[in-house]
Amino acid sequence: MKRGLPSALPAAFPAALLALAALVAWELLVRLFGVPAFLLPGPFAIAEAFWGSRGLLLEHAWPTAGEAIVGFLGAALAGVLSGLLISRSALAERSLYPWLVVSQTLPVIAVAPVLVTWFGYGPLPKVLVVVLFCFFPITVATVDGLRATDPDLVRLMRSFGATRRKVFFMVEAPGALPFLFGGVRLAVTYCVVGAVIGEWVGSSRGLGFLMIQDKAQFEIPRLFAEISLLSAMGVALFLLVALAQRLLAPWSLRRD
Amino acid sequence: MEKAGVRRDAAARPKLAARGVQVAKGGVRILDGLDLAVEGGTFVAVIGPSGAGKSTLLSLLAGLEAPDEGAVEKDGAPLSRPGSVAYMSQSDLLLPWRNVAANVSLGLEATGVPKKKARGRAREALERFGLGEFADRPPWALSGGMRSRVALLRTALLERDVLLLDEPFGALDALTRRHLQEWLLGVRGEFAATVVLVTHDVDEALLLADRVVVLTERPARVALDLDVDLERPRAMAVETTAEFARLKGRLLRALGVAGP
Predict the structure, then answer these.
(1) Closest CA–CA distance from residue B106 to any residue of chain A (Å)
(2) Is B109 in the A-facing interface, judged by CB distances under 8 Å?
(3) What is the pLDDT of residue A224?
(4) Residues of B whose CB is below 8 A from A159
């Protein structure tokens, strides 16, 4: 149980130490060389900006988080459903899978303005950008997970006289869960980025909207505060997924 | 056990029979017109060189595969689907997301027995076979020998009248295997009345079976069909008797690994 969450705290210690050292070095460099804050603010200036605008930042953090989470859930649904379809049907694999791969070569940043034109300035185009960003790793993980089923296990279930349905729900689906979580962990790190890109293209609220404004007004310390907040959001979502994996598929975290 | 009398009775219908079965895979003949009849209540061991088609034969008897030619019958009726005999493969195939009791009940649940009832019967069986203390453990906390016992219980719990074992102890170390053979000897009466065991272990075959069928190299045919007239109940000690040595000599010669 080396990867358990309780033991993750001491395990995170080296990473925390490294971060602290980097912050100290950053602050020192900024002060020693007198770097102007509009070029590179030091950590203290960023923290100050964060605290000073905490109300504003939080107000704009909620829509971004909402878009990221709803988009992520949509991507999970789309990914699992497309993965199921592809792994169950040879026709779907040959017709659908190549186009899903092609969809990943589309520059989402270029597609986002189109989505805004179609769906307006509301949250929907942002959610769609997030879905586009996130669904593919989940599709691939679902397909690979279901394909990784031990054929001997399926034979065993058949020898019991199990129906296909039972084989799926008792053996194939739980066996695919660890793979699925691999894809979900990847996807969840993309979803905040997707939401911000969606907001950059056209929005009237959200951290992405605020970033564009602050950049234009040279509010660089607050821009850095926004970046930090987005990063924290991504880490929090990642930890939530890790917790879900621990609850739903604890055997997949075991190392022996 | 008066199996000799049963076997000589021409009118008796075999419990399980393969009649002239032929199987080819990827252009290679694996079974070439093999006949095997297993009388009810007997323990038959099938032994042969690696890759001879022993496992294929067992898959046919389990209804997991169909022969290209010939037929498989159970109680005189053609066997076309799996699910009427119990089958256990070489690896224990325990599911890591189920604890031991839930693994033992897997077969029952797969056949539609309600979960609660199936788990209850699994716990009972674990108690009865001295494995009760492991019921709530995850399978990875078990030794190889324990895992095999659990897998065997899972199969036995189906309470089908035929039990097919495909090298069930093949992946275990020699000492653990001996323990499991002894255990199987002891609990044999509790399991299915008819057992077909595929093995490559001559001692295991003689220790456990009433009859040993030796297959040839591929394509497999029956090289020797040997009655094992060793007294029951048996124990490991039977392996030191002269009769055991005589039978073993015949088996080894049939396998082509001893002189004429």
Answers:
(1) 8
(2) yes
(3) 95
(4) 62-64, 82-83, 85-87
Residue A255's pLDDT is what? 65
User: Looking at beta carbons, which residues of chain A come within 8 Å of B96?
Assistant: 251, 254
CA distance B38 to B192: 13
* Cα(A20)–Cα(B100) distance, integer angstroms: 46
The predicted complex's ipTM stands at 0.87
pLDDT value of residue A1: 44
State the pLDDT at residue B260: 56
Q: Which residues of A190-205 are buried (b: 16+ CB within 10 A; e: fewer)?
A: bbbbbbbbbbbbbbee
Which residues have a Cβ under 8 Å from the Cβ of A32 and sit 6 or more positions away? none
* Per-residue pLDDT, A168: 96
Q: pLDDT value at position B256?
A: 86
Task: Give how far A158 is from chain B: nearest CA, Å.
Answer: 6
Alpha carbons B5 and B21: distance in angstroms, whole number = 27
Q: What are phi and psi of A222, to 5 degrees?
A: -70, -30
Q: Which residue on chain A is closest to B61 by alpha carbon?
A: A159
Q: Give me the pLDDT at residue B172, please.
A: 87
B55: left (phi over 0), alpha (psi -120 to 50) or beta: alpha
Residue of B89, B110, B138 with shortest CB distance to A152: B89
| pTM tops 0.90, yes or no | no
**Which residue in A159, A170, A177 is closest to B109 by CB distance?**
A170
B186 close to A (CB below 8 A): no
Residue carrying the six token digits 């009726």: B77
Those residues of chain A that have pLDDT short of 70 are 1-9, 255-256
pLDDT < 70 stretches in chain B:
1-12, 192, 259-260
Burial, A229: exposed, middle or buried (Cβ in 10 Å; 0-12, 13-18, 19+)? buried
| Contact B62/A at CB under 8 A | yes
Instruction: Please report the pLDDT score of residue B115 as a whole number.
Output: 95
pLDDT score, position A11: 80
